[in-house]
Amino acid sequence: MFFLDDIKYEALALPDRADMDDTQMQEAAQAFAQFMTERHTVRDYSDRPVNEAVIAECIRAAGTAPSGANHQPWHFVAISDLDMKARIREAAEEEEKAFYAGGAGDEWLKALEPVGTNEHKPHLTKAPWLIVIFAQRWGETKDGHRYKNYYVPESTGIASGFLLAALHHAGLVSLTHTPNPMKFLNEMCGRPASEKALMIVAVGHPSEDATVPAVAKLKKPLDEIMSVNPGPAKGENSD
Question: Which domain holds residue 178?
């Protein structure tokens, strides 16, 4: 990514700055929250293709995510090749068969019942694109020096969230898939041992008869996911 000798601190004036009053901020926050409620995890895809340029821009947006020491420890492999998607599906379904045959444990399988999933993963071949997200455990400079990456799961997780939001913003639907183990993806995607597959994201347009599990619309209310510590009121002594 860089030469060690090139690393130095340089302060830049903030290049982008929002200029909203309190009302505009509230409206913007509400509009985005509403927009994200319209994002759905979809398993049923149409045959409609998706231009590679759209996928590239969504991945470009994901690459702007914050990361530990700005090392950007991620790599996205975008796959539309039919044969490769078929091989990924075959390998993933092998792992899923063991999972659903009892490897997951009774409690996990019981939790999945309302979602309606099983070992069959037709979305892996039906969706026009699969994006395999890799977390880079260590990196290498242009002059061959190996360096440590920091907060890799957290950084890659944030970038994955950016990607899902970008895909939704582009009018696409997606599905995150995490077969376990996923070591087969390194060889299939030609990625080095320094990287670990985090997830497969199926991407495309929903089919005409696409459905989602009813339970997927049940989200925890705000008071269950948010706590507020406002601190002392204005004028109060904080001692």
Answer: 51-206
